[in-house]
Amino acid sequence: MEYNLKKTLRIESIDAKGIGVSHDENGKVVFVDGSLPGELVQAKIIKRKSSYDIAVLEDIIISSPHRVIPRCKYFNICGGCSIQHLDAAAQVAIKQRVLEDSFCHIGKVRPGFLFCPVYAETWHYRDRSRLFVKFLQNKDKLLLGFYERKSNRVINILNCPILSRKINILLSPIREVLHKLTIRNSISQVEIAVGENSVSLLIYNSCTPSRYDIIDLVSFGMDNSVDVWLHSGDIIYKVGDCSYEDTSYSLPEFEISIPFRPKNFTQINHKLNRILVSKVVGLMDIKSSDNVLDLFCGLGNFTFPIARMANKVLGIDIDDNLICKANSIAVNYNLQDVVSFIKLDLFSLKDSFFNNLDPFDIMLIDPPRSGADLIVRLLISLANNKRPRRVVYVSCNPHTLARDSYLLVTNGGYRIVCSGIINMFPHTSHVESITVFDT
């Protein structure tokens, strides 16, 4: 059912998705996309629920002093960025408030203190991206870009101000070479990853490329200094010369370089990742006698820096490819006596999980958006003398962080020493944070 009810609303706050929040004259919550805190707006109700309404912004009567003109011409169409209309400093402040509100309202807990938000460049920060592909046969045109907001229609992106400049330079050449291919109608998406020594392009397709396709892709790779890979079904293979040196990102403070291949998970913002790792390792307060457990370790983004300081460190992740590569990195840096890795599904742990491990002093958790509910429940079921003295939790979802914090504090007897955000994804509503728990 559609509504044509217009209301004048004062925007009070912004939610975790970057949508303005208000209350109407009856106290009912109204969400107004595109509005900012402090603004007086004219909005039209388009959907009504029992506890809230959804409205579209029609006019801004009083504008926020923090409202800016979005740099990207696709803003409000593209489903990528959601808060480009808010200045960078205010974005950080609002994300910090989202974290605080989550602790207060969901976790019913309060950190000892909030450290200053950590941030870096706000434009051209994204070193890897997945772009969608759509070939319009009737127009003989190939679209390469992101999905429209709340849609699976592909926007043909010519330039994106949050993508690395190296990626932006490649958008037109990639579009041109994909259009040439006989398999262009079977290509669904591409993934571009920028490393410090190379750039890789992974093409997702469902058909076998022709000999001419291979020639075109090899030529594209040579002309643009790009390693081209094809992903068909469960098979990933490099096009052309099979000799290949993994691309990598570095952590200079710890004298570590992490090699990775297409589909290996890495942070999309390499510069801020260095700051993140340094901050996390510093907050862990590692002693040379400490044994450390790193859960959801991936390629060892935190594990190897920790290994420079700890007695022993164990990294656990479910991805066999990441674990195998992490073990080879350990050998390469002669750290195999300090660091070890095992493959395990951390969402299906047995009750005996922690008891079967060697004792550890510090635990690092860096889970996906769903959080670490089972891990936390098993941890707080341990006897007090078997629990780690410090837990450092890196989160990409304030809501699940707050949920898990409630268990650690209320049921587990931990206290939150400090917490704060890392603005890993400027101009989006995503919030990365670090929280420290002590016994």
Reconstruct the topology from this structure.
Elements: E1 5-10, E2 13-14, E3 20-23, E4 29-33, E5 40-48, E6 52-62, H1 88-107, E7 113-114, E8 128-136, E9 141-145, H2 165-180, E10 187-194, E11 199-205, H3 211-224, E12 226-232, E13 235-238, E14 247-251, E15 256-260, H4 270-284, E16 291-295, H5 303-307, E17 312-317, H6 320-332, E18 339-343, E19 362-365, H7 373-380, E20 390-395, H8 398-411, E21 415-422, E22 432-438
Parallel strand pairs: 4-6, 7-21, 11-12, 16-17, 16-19, 17-18, 19-20
Antiparallel strand pairs: 1-5, 2-3, 3-4, 5-6, 8-9, 8-10, 10-11, 12-13, 14-15, 20-22, 21-22
Helix pairs in contact: 1-8, 2-3, 7-8
Report what the structure shows.
The chain folds into 3 domains: 5-67, OB fold (Dihydrolipoamide Acetyltransferase, E2P) (Beta Barrel), CATH 2.40.50; 93-121 and 269-438, 3-Layer(aba) Sandwich (Rossmann fold), CATH 3.40.50.150; 128-238, OB fold (Dihydrolipoamide Acetyltransferase, E2P), CATH 2.40.50.1070. Helices cover 24% and strands 30% of the residues. It has helices at 88-107, 165-180, 211-224, 270-284, 303-307, 320-332, 373-380, 398-411, and strands at residues 5-10, 13-14, 20-23, 29-33, 40-48, 52-62, 113-114, 128-136, 141-145, 187-194, 199-205, 226-232, 235-238, 247-251, 256-260, 291-295, 312-317, 339-343, 362-365, 390-395, 415-422, 432-438. α1 (88-107) packs parallel to α8 (398-411) and α2 (165-180) runs antiparallel to α3 (211-224). The mean pLDDT is 94.
